[in-house]
Fold:
Amino acid sequence: MEEVNKLGIIGKNISYSFSKKYFENKFRQLMLKNYRYEIFDIEDISEVNRVFAEPTLIGLNVTIPYKEKILPFLDELSDEAEKIGAVNCIVIKDNIRKGYNTDANGFEKTLLLHRKTQHTSALVLGNGGAAKAVYYVLNKLQIPFQSVYRSGDLNFKNLTAENVAENLLIIQCTPVGTFPNVQDCLDFPFEGLSQQHLVIDLIYNPEFTAFLQNAAARGAQTVNGYYMLEQQAEKNWEIWNCK
Structure:
């Protein structure tokens, strides 16, 4: 009997996860009958050792809130993951767990697809694992940015409409508004937005978050996280099959 190759995703409250259906469709398309994909919904990062104990596990996706917390449980990091300080893809081979970051690749492709000449500076909302991949890409593309987060010098209490008006690229990296809490929205001065703005929300479920709805009402160009998700998933598949 052919040995099963098991892949999966670790996160918290991720029953909605796109990844299981995406990869199961891929297994069918490629007629890979010996591949499985599982959701590992864990309450605390310490439970990841139970996941790693799965005997046929060859790789994992990592999502909120463990992209940074997973680092001490890994043996190696790719150069990109080390620079970013967050991991969303793990390869397990010869008992070595190596972490990668493919969020950066997915975000860069999304940004390059939609960015226009006026999008020369950015506000990044949030400072978690996804935001760190965004910082990495903005630095790579030499786009100056300010980070807005709860305990930051620039935060959701002191962010002004003027700050927003001066930065025509807005990237929403927090989980606020993710299914099932679709009514939730960041406290944000939407009145600073204009038709010149590009607003990217990394959330993909729902397709049109309350944040994007408010941005669109001000005439801003809006993009959700679905294309980024597809691109990072394809990069994950490439890594799992090449390493």
